[in-house]
């Protein structure tokens, strides 16, 4: 697309999750003609289609055929991080994170004008392989600059001139709800397990803590590694608090169960970081 045309663009998002990319595009005012999404989780698709019913779902990334699509102006996604993450199984490209190569395949097929890939901070050897495959070095941005969550991530993109965002100084006090329902309380047995954990996360946040740890997809079931709150009673985060930590609109995920909300928010992108990156795209696409 020529510089300055300001036309609607065609977008392809891989490993799309709950449609965070569309929230980000809308936040910065980038209009799109077609938004193609590759996702297999039925609950994430349900959330996307409720909020963005015109999304064209393509199914599994392994079945996406780039030659069947119109000219793609923007390709982005966050390939699975489970095998790259410190909290994962350490298998790297031999695990689920090997789906990164599907991103590379589709990148070559659609030849987008601009691309963006998000993933966790990982071993340098894996980072270097991704850098070589994509031909650009990653930019490291921590979500803590734009939210109350400590979430360092790597972003590989050919969108030019991106810099780190300014710190918006958002604290847990801006996120935590004083009137959370008692159904979010945790048992005495779980409180004991949280406080006895040996992994450094065994405490309860309150409004004196500025930031919280990284949301994980297994938050709904984690007895010790999750983020817990003490504002009169000890509890887990509410789904709307998790939405705020990921800078997702409040109740955006409310059409599915709380367990599914926790899963997809832990798997998702921090929307305001993606919006920050897309601001640089808005002026040139």
Comma- or semicolon-separated keywords:
285 residues; alpha/beta; 7-stranded mixed sheet; 3-stranded mixed sheet; 8 helices; 10 strands; 28% helix; globular
Characterise this structure.
The chain has 285 residues and is an alpha/beta fold. Helix content is 28%, strand content 15%. It contains 8 helices and 10 strands. It has helices at 20-28, 42-51, 100-110, 124-134, 188-196, 239-245, 258-267, 271-282; strands spanning 9-14, 32-38, 56-57, 74-77, 114-120, 139-142, 152-157, 204-205, 228-230, 234-236. Strands 3-2-1-4-5-7-6 form a 7-stranded mixed β-sheet, sandwiched between helices. Helix 2 links the parallel strand 2 (32-38) and strand 3 (56-57). Helix 1 (20-28) packs across helix 8. The longest helix is centred in the last third of the chain and has 12 residues, at 271-282. The model has no long low-confidence stretch (mean pLDDT 89).
């Amino acid at each position: 697309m020529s510089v300055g045309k300001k036309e609607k663009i065609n977008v392809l998002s891989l490993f799309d999750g709950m449609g965070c990319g569309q929230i980000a595009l809308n936040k910065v005012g980038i209009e799109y003609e077609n938004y193609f999404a590759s996702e297999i989780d039925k609950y994430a698709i349900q959330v996307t289609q409720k909020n963005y019913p015109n999304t064209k779902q393509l199914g599994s990334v392994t079945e996406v055929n780039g030659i069947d699509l119109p000219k793609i102006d923007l390709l982005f996604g966050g390939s699975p991080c489970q095998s790259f993450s410190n909290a994962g199984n350490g298998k790297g490209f031999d695990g689920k994170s090997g789906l990164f190569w599907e991103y590379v395949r589709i990148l070559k097929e659609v030849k987008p004008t601009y691309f963006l890939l998000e993933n966790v901070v990982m071993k340098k050897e894996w980072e270097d392989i991704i850098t070589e495959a994509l031909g650009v070095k990653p930019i490291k941005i921590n979500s803590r600059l734009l939210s109350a969550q400590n979430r360092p991530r790597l972003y590989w993109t050919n969108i030019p001139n991106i810099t780190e965002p300014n710190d918006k100084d958002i604290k847990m006090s801006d996120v935590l709800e004083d009137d959370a329902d008692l159904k979010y309380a945790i048992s005495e047995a779980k409180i004991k397990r949280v406080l006895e954990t040996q992994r450094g996360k065994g405490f309860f946040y309150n409004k004196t803590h500025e930031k919280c740890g990284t949301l994980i997809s297994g938050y709904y079931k984690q007895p010790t590694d999750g983020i817990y709150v003490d504002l009169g009673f000890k509890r887990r985060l509410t789904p709307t608090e998790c939405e705020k930590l990921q800078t997702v609109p409040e109740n955006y995920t409310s059409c599915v169960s709380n367990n599914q909300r926790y899963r997809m928010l832990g798997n998702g992108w921090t929307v305001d970081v993606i919006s920050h990156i897309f601001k640089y795209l808005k002026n040139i696409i």
